[in-house]
Amino acid sequence: MTTENTCKTCNDSQCAAQEKRPNERDEDFDDRQAIQSRMCQIKHKIMVLSGKGGVGKSTVAVNLATALALAGKRVGLLDVDIHGPSVPKLLHLEGTPLAGGENALIPVKVEVGQGSLSVMSIGFLLRHRDDAVIWRGPMKYGVIKQFLRDVEWGELDYLLVDSPPGTGDEPLSVAQLIEKADGAVVVTTPQDVAVQDVRRSINFCRQLNLPVIGVVENMSGFSCPKCGELVNIFGANGGREMAAEMNVPYLGAIPIEAEVVVSGDRGTPIVQAKPHSETAKAFGRIVRILLEPELSAAQAQPEPFADGRPLKIAIPVTGGLLSSHFGHCEQFVLFDVELGAKTARNKQALTPPPHEPGTFPKWLHEQGATVIIAGGMGSRAQSLFEQNGIQVLVGAVSGTPDDIVRDFLEGHLTTEANICDH
Ligand code: ADP
Question: What is the b/e burial string over 257-284, where b = at least 16 CB atoms within 10 angstroms of the residue's CB?
């Protein structure tokens, strides 16, 4: 006799954990079923990871969750950073007692604009905020599992999971227990050492088949509150370059801003406390990408380069339309972009030199291009462009260069598969 496993929430057999794994104990299989039943009420599950502690992972998680709620979404924020659960402090929820019955934990609701933000943190288990967590491995795993299994989120649009830093057993447990997460947002700083650590995080995601939604470069430049000058305290562009090199999307940079610390200490995230600050706008750009999860890596909107180079977009054209094979194009149309106004202000059509591998990236770099929008492009060519400091956007659908650049700047460029990825 075969027993059909159905999800306890929606009664659908598709979303239940289907098969007992070899050597899996009955209770572990039951737990997996229970976690899947919870998770099936949540549209998008996103892990927030970092290669090491102190890079601002929790700050990013809290601000993204709050910004999504401000955008009218039903959001859950689960803090399973066992050794540094800072979410209660960042949301002014320290000391909140845990409510719930047997096998159920009720998340704490936070007032945020139109949407809703529900929060659960391992920090709520600690009697005092300075209590150290000295659980051993199996206990940590048990607590993480209990949180994923027992928190009554109800229906959510987004669940953000603030995971323990690094690539050890704890983030591994989270990723394995969630099973069907949309992917991970990886937080780093521009410092080399953090970037090295984040490379490990990306490889960790790859080993687990967890898609990398993108890299956030936090503490990227310091905007002087008096004179406005941007000082690159920890270097610049480390996250962007590393993302290009590892072939993962770059979601954007968050500057160092004293207000981030002040608002964090007060328990109101900067996206809510100072919505017009540069930092809140930077979070807003990342949230727009998360709001369209179907957006591919290539569709993330490149920002102006932190090294001050202006945005210049190159489009390969044949017969007045986007050339589907960039290497055979007649001309490149280049647009200078007015950043504040988000419009193209200057347009030039240039005939490229004869095509040989590497000539176009070098030539376009000499023309000042910082972004190329193409129909299709092989991975070798993509990496040659990235090496020349040109960000690549592939899969654009045919059209005039003016239409393509307008759609791109307005944030609704349609892209399809990379049609000539040879
Ligand atoms: P993690 O979760 O990676 O350990 P936290 O989010 O707890 O890091 O941040 C560590 C410290 O850095 C906190 O004091 C936080 O306020 C501060 N911080 C994080 N991001 C920024 C930023 N963009 N500007 C200024 N301070 C920041």
Answer: beebeebbeebbbbbbbbeebbbbebbb
The C-alpha atoms of residue 385 and residue 342 are separated, in whole angstroms, by: 23
Neighbours of 211 (CB within 10 A): 16
Per-residue model confidence (pLDDT) at position 244: 80
Q: Which domains, and CATH codes, for the chain?
A: 41-290 (3.40.50.300), 302-410 (3.30.420.130)
Q: Which atom of ligand 1 is nearest to the CA of 218?
A: 23
Contacts by 270-279 with C-beta closer than 8 Å and gap 24+?
Answer: 270/63, 271/63, 271/66, 271/67, 271/70, 272/66, 272/70, 272/112, 272/113, 275/70, 278/223, 279/254, 279/255
**Nearest atom of ligand 1 to the alpha carbon of 81:** 2
Q: Which two tokens stand for residue 94?
A: 């320290």
Task: Tokens for 228, please give them.
Answer: 């406005």
Q: Say yes or no: CB of residue 277 within 6 Å of ligand 1.
A: no
Q: In this structure, which residue's CA is closest to atom 8 in ligand 1? A: 56
Query: Can you spell out the DSSP letters for 266-307?
Result: HT--HHHH-TTSHHHHHHHHHHHHHHSTT--GGGSPPPPPTT
Which residues make Cβ contacts (< 8 Å) with residue 126, sequence separation at least 6?
85, 133
User: Taking Cα atoms as reference points, which of 349, 362, 295, 363 lies closest to residue 318?
Assistant: 349
How far is Cα 185 from Cα 38, in angstroms, rounded to an integer?
22
Are the CB atoms for 50 and 198 separated by under 8 Å? yes
Q: What angle do CA 348, 354, 358 make, to 5 degrees?
A: 90
Instruction: Enumerate residues 6+ apart whose C-beta is below 8 A from 114.
Output: 69, 70, 71, 72
Q: What was the pLDDT predicted at 295?
A: 41
- From the CB of 217, is ligand 1 less than 6 Å away? no
Helices and strands (DSSP H and E) totals, the chain: 13, 15
Tell me, in angstroms, the distance from the centre of ligand 1 to residue 142's CA: 28
Mean pLDDT by 10 residues, the chain (422 residues): 58 62 83 87 93 93 96 93 87 87 87 90 74 66 88 94 89 88 91 78 88 90 68 70 82 89 92 90 89 50 51 92 88 82 80 90 92 83 82 83 84 62 41
